Amino acid sequence: MPLFEPYRPGLDADERPPSLTGVVVRAATQADVPALAAIEAARESGDPAQHAAKLGKLIDAAAAGEALVLAAAHDDELLGVAKVARFTPAPGAPTNSASAGWYLLGVVVAEHCRRRGLGRRLTQARLNWIAERARAAFYFSNAGNRASIDLHRPFGFVEVTRDFTFPGASFEGATGILFRAALSPSFAGASGLD
Fold first, then answer.
1. Which residues contact 75 (CB under 8 A, 6 or more apart)?
2. What is the pTM of this model?
């Protein structure tokens, strides 16, 4: 499997799969973890149990107000997962440590639902949620991941730096880019969660 979703900008209308209707975006629960971990493992490889452990911890952090895990569902099927967490550099962190703040930490959509608007919807819901707590959001990407960069651009993300560190982040032999988006009060108050 390629590292990133195949990048196909500017698809003609007849090439684009139809948008999904009837999808609910909601806060994930511990009961969702096995299915969401399977979606992540199918896209990012690795042991589903390891993905499940990380998601479970993040959902616990969400209960404490330090994170958010969203699930996109249609009927009883989970179709995607998206994450947010607050980051604070540790004491003694390198001088090029990523900025403190709320970070989008990934969105993964089940393969049969990609390119149908779920990534955009999950990103909008996360930014609305962050806007209720802060005036900026951050995310980082591999410079080669054009699909991710283009997904986030319409939300106002601009490059901050390519010289940064973030605990646990690696960029598979490429450069990482740290992005920031200013969030106006108009984002807040409509999290988009069902």
1. 22
2. 0.86
| Alpha-carbon span 153 to 49, nearest angstrom | 33
> Strand 67-74 vs strand 158-161: parallel, antiparallel, or unpaired?
unpaired
Size (the chain), residues = 194
Alpha-carbon dihedral sign for residues 23, 137, 186, 10: negative
Task: Kindly indicate whether the domain formed by 24-182 is annotated with CATH number 3.40.630.30.
Answer: yes
Q: How far apart are CA 99 and CA 90, in angstroms?
A: 11
Residues 142, 75: Cα–Cα separation, whole Å: 34
Q: Where are the domains of the chain?
A: 24-182
Question: In terms of C-beta density within 10 A (0-12 exposed, 13-18 middle, 19 or more buried), how is residue 70 classed?
Answer: buried
- Alpha-carbon distance of 108 to 7, in angstroms, equals 15
Cβ(178)–Cβ(162) below 8 Å: yes
Q: What digits encode the pLDDT tens for the residues 81-96?
A: 999 999 999 999 999 9
Adjacency order of strands within the sheet including 24-27: 24-27, 67-74, 77-87, 101-109, 136-142, 176-182, 158-161
DSSP alpha helix (H) spans, the chain? 33-44, 48-63, 118-131, 146-152
Q: Six-digit token pair at 36?
A: 């969401």
The mean per-residue pLDDT over the stretch 181-194 comes to 68
